Structure formats: structure tokens, C-alpha cells
Amino acid sequence: MKKIYQIIGLVVLMICSIVYDFQKPEVVKKNVVSLSYVILEGEFLKNGKYEFEGEKTIQELVDEVGVSPKANMQSLVMDKKVEDESRLYLPSLHEGAVSLNHASQEELMTLEGVGEKTALKIIDYRQQQPFETIEDIMDINGIGEKTYLRLREHLCL
């Protein structure tokens, strides 16, 4: 008799388990707004972390945040999408800014710490694809964040 109760108990447990597996849990979706952000530096009127919804182009970001009158707008590609968690630097307009996309090897070598080999690497890179932001210079082997931070105020696109 004890074995029959054990078997009945196991069958009931299996049926409950099967019924439970087929039940789908309720999915509760709330209106969750995911914010993106970018770190703004340089001649933007608002510096630091800037949060926004959805996708934005650099032009839309500039229109919202504003830039100082001495901003070098040639350093930005306005129709480029702003990447979430990225950093944008807008240098000030001054004579002697070196264009990453147009400067000759000799002009690139006028930058502090840029020699012949690094200048050639910059030229090779832009022949493959043009620089879209001055931060792209860190994609070049041998140019890290410290070098970028030292050079960025002297660069434009």
C-alpha cells in the first residue's frame, strides 16, 4: 500500500511539474527610456557628460548644446552619428592647426612628437579612410591617449 501512495505521489508531482513548465510567465514591459551619453570637451558651451535620447548627429548635438564663437568647426563631421559613451573634443580656431585629412608629411611633422614614420602612418591611414573625428588619430599604431591629448588642440580635419 505504501508503494502505491509513493507512485501516486510521484505521478502527481510529474503532472504538476509538466503543467508548471507550460505556463508562460507574464512579461511586464514598462516604458523604459534608454539614455545615451557623450562627453563634450573643448569649445562646446556645455562641457562634461551630456545625456540624450535616441540617435543624434553631431549637427543636432551642436544645435542643442551650442559652441563658442572661437570653435574650430572644421574639426567635426556634422552628419556623423554620435556614438554612445564616446568623447567629442572641439578645438578652438587658431592659425597653425594641422589638418589630418589634408596636411602634407612636412606639415604633420611640425606637430610635437610626430616624426617621419608617424606622419607616414597618418597619411596611410587617411588614404584607406578619411578621419571623421580628430579622436580617430588614436587608431594609428603608436599614437595613444597621451599623445592625442597633447596634440588635439593643434589638429583639425
UniProtKB/TrEMBL annotation:
GO terms of molecular function: DNA binding
Chain segments annotated as coiled-coil in the UniProt record: none
Name of the protein described by the UniProt record: Competence protein ComEA
Superkingdom of this protein's organism: Bacteria
GO biological process: DNA repair
All residue ranges annotated as the Helix-hairpin-helix DNA-binding motif class domain in the record: 106-125, 135-154
